[in-house]
Amino acid sequence: MKTMLIVLLIAAPCFGQEAKVLQVEPADATKAQELYEKMQQAEKDWKDYVEATKEKYLTVPYDSPERGNQTYERPSNTTTALFSGSGCILWGTMAGESNKCEQERESRMKQREKEDKLKPWHRAGWESMEFEFSKDFKFIVPKPRDTGIVKSNYPCMTLTNN
């Protein structure tokens, strides 16, 4: 045991790593920090601009003929889950309450319809909400989707990812 410990202590410096560090001049450090902070701000501004573009061009009102089948919710940093109502919203709890539950369910459905009419909706065909700007920045085009199909060099063979 002592021999193994001695061998490890002798061999350890051979495998050690050393980091090479060079100090930059203060003016270069200041310039690097300024540029880094500008880059961080530019990335945030770009992300915000893309979200605003999505809202402006890829959402439509409820009554639009271009309306898709999903409402648009602006991404947020927090996740909110809403749970409300009694257990009879989906199921009647007792035979005597089934009429009451049906009325409550209808009331909630009407309320949801009213709320949905006020929300922006995905434009049909743009449900993924993913796009790229054209090279001249005059158009937005959908990002290509991963179809799950792998093309093969063999003429009669196509693989699918399941």
Largest beta sheet: strand ordering: 1-3-2
Strand residue percentage:
5-15%
- Roughly how much helix do the residues carry, as a percent range? 40-55%
E-strand count: 7
Major sheet details = 3 strands, antiparallel
Low-confidence stretches: 78-92
Quick check: average pLDDT? 75
- Whole-Å distance between the termini? 53 Å
Helix/strand class: alpha+beta
Number of helices: 3
What integer value in Å does the Rg equal? 30 Å
Order of helices and strands: HHEEHEEEEE
Anisotropy-based shape: elongated
Explain how this protein is built.
- The protein has 162 residues and is α+β, with helices and mostly antiparallel strands.
- The protein has helices at residues 2-15, 26-57, 98-118, and strands spanning 59-60, 67-71, 121-123, 131-133, 140-142, 149-151, 158-160.
- The strands form 3 sheets. A 3-stranded antiparallel sheet has the order 1-3-2. A two-stranded antiparallel sheet has the order 4-5.
- A hairpin with a 6-residue loop joins strand 6 and strand 7 (158-160).
- The radius of gyration is 30 Å and the shape is elongated.
- Residues 78-92 have low confidence and may be disordered.
List the helices and strands and how they pair.
Layout: H1 2-15, H2 26-57, E1 59-60, E2 67-71, H3 98-118, E3 121-123, E4 131-133, E5 140-142, E6 149-151, E7 158-160
Antiparallel strand pairs: 1-3, 2-3, 4-5, 6-7
Which keywords apply here?
14% strand, alpha+beta, 3 helices, two-stranded antiparallel ribbon, elongated
